[in-house]
Design brief:
With 395 residues, the protein is an alpha/beta fold. Helices cover 41% and strands 17% of the residues.
């Protein structure tokens, strides 16, 4: 079986952390089927004075091998921010169609799997019609309320779903969000995002953990609720002075975002400099090391379609505290950690304090075994490839 994966969100030499979860899925499924990846990147014209945020894409080769899988990086026209958002799928499709034609002659793929319905999935559905192959769409973002602001995008997304065989969603909340827009719940299959249990492992001796270390891993942006976490830390430190927070991550494109500046100002205003460490962006191996040595991993998000950090933490033998904001409700139970309302620093501080005070409730091996059994990439790959096979049978 030959599969073409289409996803702008895929790691490259410019953005090595982009779409790691897509790469994980592709690598795991490549043990069961052939894989090629097309990951379009913004066109960067050779103009003087072009900001490096755009110009750096010129450094990417048109093709390279990543983990033994061929990844193609065709260019497509993309506007700044959301300036061309409603026509982005058209620009995407016409920019890559010739390249896909060439690729198909050398690699006659049997089906297309796109990640994110817009614009990738819309382009994939058009390509599926062009070549007469089934299309599967994996969505990674909750559809509401943002899609309500873009009626043309909404119409295109609904069209793409009508013309796909299956749509994959990682959580119940994500499934419900999509079905409310498309009215086609029968096309949706729940398939979680996976993790590598060989990388995210518990410490051999749980006593070696930093028993007051709280870990946050993710982008520093408003939807992740880092401001709420900082306010919760102030409350927690007042009651548990030894508590410490490590922030791993940063902005996707650069560090000087207005939100990052707000966070640093909030830390100064609350006098938390000594209780908090900015670790910056880290590789997956470094993230795994931070996780296994921490006492608890926290996800204070305002909205989450899944919660990959949570399953990685559990596989590392570490309990979690998360907000009821979509995806975490499918992951976190009382035996694995705590769930609290979003936007509630007091509840978040109380949950963190409770977990830190009762770490013995959470057996690392039990947490890790649950994560391996439920979220390993091997299991996710088997579920995904089974859907590929069913899609081909239906054709």
């Amino acid at each position: 079986m030959k599969v073409l994966t289409l996803s702008r969100n895929y790691p490259n030499d410019v953005l090595p952390h982009l779409g790691l979860w897509v790469e994980g899925s592709v690598r795991a499924s490549s043990a069961l089927c052939e894989q090629r990846v097309v990951s379009p990147v913004p066109y960067a014209p050779p103009l003087p004075g072009l900001p490096d945020q755009i110009a750096r894409y010129r450094r990417l080769p048109p093709r390279q091998e990543r983990g033994g899988i061929a990844v193609h990086y065709p260019r497509f026209l993309a506007g700044p921010g959301h300036a061309l958002h409603s026509i982005e799928a058209d620009a995407y499709y016409w920019s890559i169609r010739h390249r896909i034609d060439q690729l198909r002659r050398a690699y006659p793929f049997d089906l297309i799997h796109a990640h994110f319905v817009y614009p990738d999935g819309v382009a994939a559905a058009r390509l599926g019609q062009r070549y007469g192959v089934p299309v599967l769409l994996t969505e990674h973002a909750l559809w509401q309320p943002w899609m309500d602001d873009y009626p043309r995008v909404r119409r295109q997304a609904r069209w793409a779903v009508r013309h796909c065989t299956f749509q994959l969603a990682a959580s119940t909340a994500l499934r419900d969000s999509i079905a409310q827009v498309t009215g086609l719940p029968e096309k949706i299959r729940l398939v979680p995002i996976g993790m590598d249990p060989a990388l995210f492992t518990p410490l051999p001796d749980p006593a070696q953990r930093q028993r007051d270390q709280i870990l946050f891993v993710g982008r520093i942006q408003p939807v992740k609720g880092v401001d709420v976490l900082i306010e919760a830390l102030r409350l927690l430190v007042d009651r548990r002075p030894t508590a410490r927070l490590v922030l791993v991550g940063g902005g996707l494109y650069h560090e000087g975002t207005p939100y990052m500046k707000e966070i640093r100002a909030l830390i100064r205003r609350l006098g938390l400099g000594a209780a908090l460490t900015f670790a910056g962006r880290k590789t997956p191996c470094e993230v795994a090391a931070f996780m296994r040595e921490s006492a608890v991993v926290v996800s204070p998000s305002r909205r989450e379609s899944f919660g990959t950090v949570l399953v990685e933490a559990l596989s590392s033998g570490v309990p979690v505290v998360a907000t009821r904001c979509g995806g975490p409700e499918d992951i976190v139970t009382d035996g694995l950690g705590r769930l609290v309302p979003p936007e509630d620093p007091a509840a978040l501080a109380a949950a963190l304090e409770d977990v830190l005070a009762h770490l013995d409730r959470y057996d690392p091996e039990h947490l890790a075994a649950h994560a391996r059994r439920t979220y390993s990439w091997d299991r996710v790959a088997r579920e995904t490839v089974a859907l590929y096979e069913e899609a081909l049978r239906r054709r």
